[in-house]
């Protein structure tokens, strides 16, 4: 009597919760979880999926229908370990995201893709990929000795790594205290024990710099992981990790999915940064996933920052995370002197050149003194472009994006060569030539208002004609070569001044940088988010920390229209503890994180009336479910909205939000789960529903 052949369960990159069942191909009674397979989907489509662990509960439909057969098996052995599958399964569950699409987010696109056009490319890259590794530029010389604080911190980290237990540690170190050297030596300890290490940073620019430090220390054991790496390069890195050739990965948030096994150390540098939170598709937080991965692998997780997030520090207060501090800079350099300028004060007439409105007399004099001392300066404004608002002063017509409900930004030097004058949408990328004629009335009275890094640079050069200045933002740093050359040129003294966005505020060490000027200190303060004050404090503290290294005290000038706001005052005083107390007091009564938990449902579609209708229907369903949730949990759940998104229209899609809030994570998740189950049976009429767990802002 023939034994019954069991079906295999496959995770496919499709928007369906759960797995699809197939029969194994003839001659192969058993396929191991973690192997890729080619399977038929629907009538004509083929897709690549991954054999997954059987679910605890079978779908009754699988028992009643004739299952299709796996077309072919792509791997001789599993390419995804059991531990890696456990990690992705947990990610899928927490973020309400299908496990197959979670796989697609995690794996290199030459291993798995939902696009039909990519299947042949994947099938043709099954052999080992050979890609020459580009050696990063040389890093600054490492110190021969450590400070006493570095020694103390490193001693604790070594004990935690060798303990083989999940150990979450917050490393609160002021800017310039030498955290990078601590990370390198902690990774050295992990490797000595036969373990691996994962180093996460928020920006590609920072990853490209940090990998040089690690490469100089560990050579070819180090790999780099971020979105600018080509498909073949990422596949080669993936293969080298699995073969044990790479044991340290340095990368941005997506590096959390690098297939490292036996991890001893995970570092999340600048852990407070919002860049660790992805805001499309799988809306995960790499910081939170680092803690999950560390728990699954019994690793030491170091959350490093000069300004730890309130969410992280609350865990320290509760005793859940260990706190290590580094209060002194290397070389005992004092923290920079900060001067706060009130931009509301009218400028007095003096015998100085005519200055642009954003350049106070204090900033002008500081720049002049810095240049005469052959030192360097950094001007920070977190806004790209030349002008943020272009309009016709004859008829009032404003130039707006036809796909998004926002105004177009004027760029006078756009494109790879910087030779195009365009109006650009910073949301969807739409652009058109900046013509001097109004399309509405035909007039030529085109005016522009607002400011961006491009305008700051242009007007800086007008005031100081001999200055050697460069922009450092997404528009100018489009290539890895340009980014590295600019950073190296600034370190060598070939550039006097950098004008940049937040790309330049994180982790960079410039020995001769003595002046930092913040053009508009309260810009981020007005963003409609519960943590706007915290982000303002962190941003100002981080950018101020770039000034004054190698023994010489730096100078910082912060210009603001709200100089009395506590986030700006405490940033000027380098007073993290006082800011923390005031911010905690403001949030605790409203149950905002970390004193409450948020889940945002995002509705989007091409017809606004359909989007609005579905979002209100979801709100009514949630209200009907709510009484059962309230009986089960003692903490209340609030249903806020629905309401239009902060950007009501993005890329031709109208956006509405429905926010769920509660002191209890279980309660808010239970409501979200019940709501999603009910919505699965509601006709969507072209409306897409996305889930954002623990949002840092609204869509």
UniProtKB/TrEMBL annotation:
Gene3D superfamilies in the cross-refs: P-loop containing nucleotide triphosphate hydrolases, PriA, 3(prime) DNA-binding domain
Cofactors demanded by this protein: Zn(2+)
Reaction(s) the record says it catalyses: Couples ATP hydrolysis with the unwinding of duplex DNA by translocating in the 3'-5' direction; ATP + H2O = ADP + phosphate + H(+)
UniProt record, GO biological process: DNA recombination; DNA replication initiation; DNA replication, synthesis of primer; double-strand break repair
Role played: Initiates the restart of stalled replication forks, which reloads the replicative helicase on sites other than the origin of replication. Recognizes and binds to abandoned replication forks and remodels them to uncover a helicase loading site. Promotes assembly of the primosome at these replication forks.
Quaternary structure (record): Component of the replication restart primosome.
Record-given protein name: Replication restart protein PriA
Gene: priA
């Amino acid at each position: 009597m023939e034994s019954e052949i069991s079906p295999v369960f496959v995770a496919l990159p499709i928007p369906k919760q759960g797995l699809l069942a197939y029969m194994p191909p003839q001659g192969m009674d058993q396929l191991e979880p973690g192997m890729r397979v080619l399977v038929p989907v629907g009538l004509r489509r083929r897709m690549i999926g991954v054999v997954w662990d059987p679910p605890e509960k079978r779908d009754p439909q699988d028992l009643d229908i004739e299952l299709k057969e796996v077309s072919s098996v792509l791997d001789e052995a599993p390419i995804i370990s059991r531990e890696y599958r456990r990690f992705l399964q947990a990610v899928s569950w927490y973020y309400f995201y299908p496990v197959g699409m979670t796989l697609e987010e995690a794996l290199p696109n030459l291993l798995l893709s939902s696009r039909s056009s990519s299947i042949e490319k994947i099938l043709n890259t099954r052999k080992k990929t050979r890609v020459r590794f580009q050696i990063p530029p040389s890093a600054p010389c490492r110190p021969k000795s450590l400070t006493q604080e570095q020694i103390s911190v490193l001693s604790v980290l070594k004990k935690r790594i060798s303990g083989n237990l999940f150990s979450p540690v917050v490393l609160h170190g002021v800017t310039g205290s030498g955290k990078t050297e601590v990370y390198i030596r902690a990774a050295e300890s992990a490797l000595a024990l036969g373990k691996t290490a994962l180093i996460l940073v928020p920006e590609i620019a920072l990853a490209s710099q940090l990998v040089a430090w690690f490469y100089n220390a560990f050579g070819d054991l180090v790999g780099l992981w971020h979105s600018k790496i080509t498909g073949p390069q990422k596949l080669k890195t993936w293969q080298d990790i699995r073969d044990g050739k790479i044991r340290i990965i340095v990368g941005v948030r997506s590096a959390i999915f690098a297939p490292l096994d036996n991890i001893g150390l995970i570092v999340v540098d600048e852990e407070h940064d919002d860049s660790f939170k992805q805001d499309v598709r799988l809306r995960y937080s790499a910081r939170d996933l680092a803690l999950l991965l560390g728990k699954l692998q019994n690793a030491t997780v170091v959350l490093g920052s000069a300004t730890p997030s309130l969410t992280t520090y609350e865990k320290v207060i509760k005793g859940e995370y260990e706190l290590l501090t580094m209060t002194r800079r290397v070389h005992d350099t004092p923290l920079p002197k900060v001067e706060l300028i009130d931009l509301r004060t009218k400028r007095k007439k003096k015998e100085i050149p005519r200055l642009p409105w954003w350049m106070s007399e204090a900033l002008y004099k500081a720049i002049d003194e810095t240049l005469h001392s052959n030192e360097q300066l950094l001007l920070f404004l977190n806004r790209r472009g030349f002008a943020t608002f272009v309009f016709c002063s004859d008829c009032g017509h404003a130039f707006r994006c036809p796909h998004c409900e926002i105004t177009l930004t004027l760029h006078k030097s756009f494109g790879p060569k910087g030779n195009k004058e365009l109006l650009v949408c910073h949301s969807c990328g739409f652009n058109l030539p900046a013509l001097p004629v109004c399309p509405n009335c035909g007039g030529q009275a085109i005016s522009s208002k607002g400011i961006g890094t491009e305008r700051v640079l242009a007007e800086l050069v007008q005031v100081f004609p001999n200055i050697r200045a460069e922009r450092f933002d997404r528009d100018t740093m489009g290539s890895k070569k340009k980014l590295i050359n600019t950073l190296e040129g600034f370190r060598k003294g070939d550039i006097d001044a950098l004008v940049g966005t937040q790309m330049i505020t994180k982790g960079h060490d410039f020995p001769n940088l003595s002046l930092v000027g913040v053009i508009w200190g309260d810009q981020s303060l007005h963003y409609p988010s519960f943590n706007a004050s915290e982000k303002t404090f962190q941003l100002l503290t981080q950018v101020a920390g770039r000034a004054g290294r190698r023994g010489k005290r730096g100078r910082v000038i912060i210009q603001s229209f709200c100089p009395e706001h506590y986030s700006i005052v405490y940033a000027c005083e380098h007073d993290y503890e006082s800011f923390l107390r005031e911010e905690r007091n403001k949030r605790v009564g409203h149950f905002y994180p970390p004193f409450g938990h948020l889940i945002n449902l995002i509705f989007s579609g091409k017809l606004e009336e359909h989007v609005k209708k579905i979002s209100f229907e979801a709100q009514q369903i949630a209200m009907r479910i709510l009484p059962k949730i309230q009986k089960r949990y003692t903490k209340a759940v609030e249903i806020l909205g629905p309401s239009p998104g902060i950007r009501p229209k993005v890329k031709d899609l109208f956006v509405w939000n429905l926010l769920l809030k509660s002191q209890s994570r279980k309660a808010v998740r239970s409501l979200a789960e019940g709501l999603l189950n009910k919505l699965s049976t509601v006709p969507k009429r072209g409306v897409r529903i996305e889930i954002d767990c623990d949002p840092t802002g609204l869509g």
